[in-house]
Structure formats: structure tokens, C-alpha cells
Design goal:
By secondary structure, this protein is mainly alpha-helical. The chain is built from four helices and two strands; from the N terminus they run ααααββ.
Length: about 180
């Protein structure tokens, strides 16, 4: 039994070592985040229900977008390896170039592609799912004009009043020894 387990473990490690690709790690992370984060968010009863629903939806959507974006960019890298190696006059190292380009595209996808897509589609999809539309939104707050100390007028929204700087002259504070 022990030898069988050792052999199986050795085969598993050697296969994972031979097929070491950045895609496997990020797909695992995207899938687990897309499943586990929304689950734990919905279990948090300390937050408001709407807040939990929005957060869980956003996390699940991010996981789905990440999973798809990683696969698409990886397939694009596979198609670019041969032309890239040909143009750079690299022969016999296509597999190494593929792994390096895969790592670079995984990083760029995580930094730029996934946030861009999620920012563009989260709000419209959330409106569709929750059934909210522009008709249910409250009227915008009218701007109020408040005087400024210099005699000019500034426009503030939502009755915002700027903070004044505290005066520490003769306030009894001692600094130093």
C-alpha cells in the first residue's frame, strides 16, 4: 500500500512538473474565488442583504470573467508562439517561449483585461438581474450655491460644507520637552 501511494504521488508530481503552465494556477484560483467568495459573502449576516447580494454577484461575475479571459488569452498566446519564434529567429525553444508568454499574458490579463471587462458589465448586468431601471432611481440633488470667504461662490452638492482649519494659537498644547 505504501509503495503504491508513493508511486502514485511520484507520478502526479512528475506530471505536474512536466506540464507546469501558468494557466492551471490562475484557472484554479479564478474558479475557487468565483465559487467560494460569493458563498461566504452570502453567509455573512452582519451586512445588509442588498450589499451581500451585490458583492456576491460581483465576485461571481469576476470569477467567470477571469476564467474566460485567461482561457482566451492563453489560446491567443499559443497561436502567437510560432510566428514570434520565427521572427525572433529562435529555434527549438518554442515550449519555453510559450510558457514565458503565457506568464506575461496571465499577468497582463489580471492587471488590465479583467478589471476593464468587469467595470463595463457589472452595473448593467446587476440592473438586469435585480430588475432595477432608470425609472426607479431618485431625482438628482440640486446644486446649492454657498458663499466662499473670498467673495466668490462655490457650488456644493448634498449640502456639503467644507471643513475649516483648527486654530492652535494659544491652545495650551506643548510640543517637545
Amino acid at each position: 500500500m505504501n509503495q503504491k501511494f508513493t508511486r502514485m504521488y511520484k507520478n502526479l508530481c512528475s506530471k505536474l512538473g512536466e506540464n507546469n503552465d501558468a494557466l492551471y494556477g490562475v484557472l484554479t484560483i479564478a474558479a475557487s474565488k468565483g465559487i467560494l467568495r460569493p458563498t461566504f459573502t452570502m453567509m455573512d449576516k452582519k451586512q445588509e442583504k442588498k450589499s451581500r447580494q451585490y458583492t456576491a454577484f460581483r465576485e461571481a461575475l469576476t470569477g467567470i470573467v477571469a476564467f474566460g479571459a485567461y482561457i482566451v488569452t492563453h489560446k491567443g498566446v499559443e497561436k502567437l508562439v510560432k510566428p514570434f519564434c520565427k521572427k525572433a529567429k529562435i529555434t527549438g525553444k518554442e515550449n519555453d517561449v510559450k510558457k514565458t508568454l503565457s506568464l506575461i499574458t496571465v499577468s497582463l490579463t489580471a492587471l488590465f483585461v479583467i478589471p476593464f471587462i468587469c467595470n463595463k458589465i457589472t452595473k448593467p448586468l446587476m440592473d438586469i438581474v435585480t430588475g432595477s431601471s432608470k425609472q426607479n432611481k431618485p431625482n438628482p440633488v440640486k446644486d446649492e450655491i454657498q458663499p466662499n470667504f473670498g467673495g466668490t461662490k462655490r457650488i456644493y452638492k448634498n449640502n456639503y460644507t467644507p471643513l475649516t482649519r483648527p486654530v492652535f494659537v494659544n491652545s495650551g498644547m506643548r510640543i517637545g520637552g
